[in-house]
Amino acid sequence: MEQVEVVVAHFERATLRVGDMFVKVDGDQRRLDIEVDVMTRVPVPTPEVLWRKPHVLALAAVPGTALGRLETPSTASPEAWAAAGAAVRTFHDAPLPPWPGKTLDDRVARLDRECEWLLVNDVLPASVIARNRALAETAMRPWKQSFIHGDLQICHVFVDDQDEVTAIIDWSEGAPGDAMFDLATLSLAQEHHLDDLLDGYGRDAVDVDLIRAWWAWRCLVVVQWLVDAGYGAPEEFTEVAVLRSLA
């Protein structure tokens, strides 16, 4: 009998693994629909869709291992990080999907709300929040639209022992957006690999200052969600440590 492993479980989504199959249960059917649609469009390896039912999506396990985990420094080789950068550039340059992504106004409004929550709940010193907010605001400008993953965490990129990308997973946030946001999400808390990532991506289209600004934005806006989803106390979060270091 196959064991059932709970991969992710929170108020928005649960993901279970049974053998070589992952089953996603999502309260928002649109996210699952987008995930499947995006995987038919992006020119990079993605999981195979096994079957779909309302609010449920079954995907085949992908080969390789994750590039790393947010909580610890990645031990993947520079070549693996460069391969990841090349793969990201490939879908960033792909034709845009026909649905809209998050707007500049959306991003600004969320930054306002989350910074207020951090202050009210005394999560970090006001000076640390203010410095990171000022940094994050530099990313709040009109951007060239690219086909972005939208949640390109390090654990969503898989590579093999030949340092080739075997798959990129979890595409439910795929949409038009700022390419620097994806690069920032992938390199968050992995700054020592940023040069390797950009070697593969191509530095012609990169603004490192904007990547750092998106680090601050992502860390500022995610803390409340992590608390609400039951991931622990803020002082334990990698994102809070990043905010302290950026300040």
Average pLDDT works out at 97
Q: Tell me the major beta sheet.
A: 5 strands, antiparallel
SS-derived structural category: alpha+beta
Which regions are unreliable across 5 or more consecutive residues at pLDDT < 50? Answer: none
DSSP helical segment count: 8
Taken from the alpha-carbon principal axes, the silhouette is globular
Number of DSSP E strands? 10
The helix content, as a percent range, equals 40-55%
CATH architecture term: Alpha-Beta Complex
The CATH homologous superfamily is called: Aminoglycoside phosphotransferase (APH), C-terminal lobe
CATH topology name: Aminoglycoside 3'-phosphotransferase, Chain: A, domain 2
N-to-C SSE string, H for helix and E for strand: EEEHEEEHHHEEEEHHHH
Whole-number count of domains: 1
Rg over C-alpha atoms, rounded to the nearest angstrom: 18 Å
- Roughly what fraction of the amino acids lie in strands? 15-25%
Order of strands across the biggest sheet? 1-2-3-5-4
Task: Give the class-level CATH name.
Answer: Alpha Beta
End-to-end Cα distance, whole Å, is 51 Å
